[in-house]
Fold:
Amino acid sequence: MKLICRPHGTSLPTPSRCDLPVLMYGRCESGRAISCGAAVAEQIRRKGYVLPQRAWDLLSLALAVTAADTAIGRGLSPDGWTRQLDLDIGVHDPDFWNSQKELIGSILQFLTTDIWKVQFVQASYEPKPPKHVALCEEKSVMLLSGGLDSLVGALDLVAAGIKPVAVSQTVKGDGEKQLVFASSIGGGLTHLQLNHNVKAPKGAERSQRARSFIFLTYGVLAATALPNYQDSPQLPMYVCENGLIAINPPLTDTRIGSLSTRTTHPTYLSKFQKLLDNAKLFVSIRNPYEFKTKGEMLSECGDQDYLINAAHVSTSCGRFARHGMKHCGRCVPCLIRRAAFQRWEVADRTQYLFADLSKSDKDHAQFDDVRALSMAVSRAKNEGVDAVLGASLLSDAIDDPEPYRGVVERGLAEVRHLLEGYRVR
Structure:
């Protein structure tokens, strides 16, 4: 099936067995087409942001990708996971974007393990001019998710004398946290909070492996709107994630491909950076913590007082919404979080649904993620970290694998200490 993605103000095809229309920057009253992006455009206008045309085109691409990732279920594919996604996207400069089709397909395939085909046609979005133009003094942006790593990142940047624009992707359960963190850190940060609001007629695919593509795009939008963007050869965009999660090795032989997420993997960020460079969107993606474990991030944070009071409020759980906005305590992100608190030697006040891993049942020590991490830490200890990494570091984007190998080894050691404390074997 092909998704025909067109901006508001242009014509959409009639839905058929072969074509599924996507209305970008508008709301579809009939419910027969996918709609997305109207709230993003409205919020950018309210903020007084003026964006270069290539940034709007990048947003159109990101909205189309998010619509496909949301609307097309993996269960329909032959292997129950890998989809073939065909996008026809209206942009201002189709010649340039068609010259990037191979790179874009490579980015998206690495991120989601789906097979992507993209085609661009002339159908430009013409945004309404803002009533006033924002005059921000900031010289950088950061992605503020409501998670623990981005919280540490914001605190460290402010402690270092850097006050970035905080950019958030609204996620159920995290929106209020994003507002609280942005309004209180450093006396308050300029905050851009966006929601793509994809509305699909037949529900949503839950895996959402492409979600970081639009999150990075939101950061680029904010960066290119800053007055200082014009004077900076490469305006910094901080994406804060610990090295173990960034590499996110598959842990066991059955966890391959996008079953382990790649939202901040250095290969993905390098490919996205190349797309920005080719588009002459002069934004530099930086992860200051790619060689730090989560425990090291907490222990070395530049504002310990704020972190001690707020860390338990942040979100790490991969199943947070499914468990009624509570941390499960047993998924991989939760286990890494719990291990980091232990390394930090600060009491973890997070409420975990499955807290006692000493219980040897399917809900605790025998849960799939707990067993997978237990197997991985044991294998790393006995055979070396390369036995766990597999092909995770085989990439042209990684010149020197040693620092990555080291952070994964230390991160798994933090988890090992947690599991040993519960006598998980």
In short: The beta strands are 2-7, 19-24, 34-36, 84-91, 115-122, 141-143, 165-169, 191-194, 235-238, 283-286. The CA atoms of residues 25 and 38 lie 4 Å apart. DSSP finds 15 helices and ten strands in the chain.
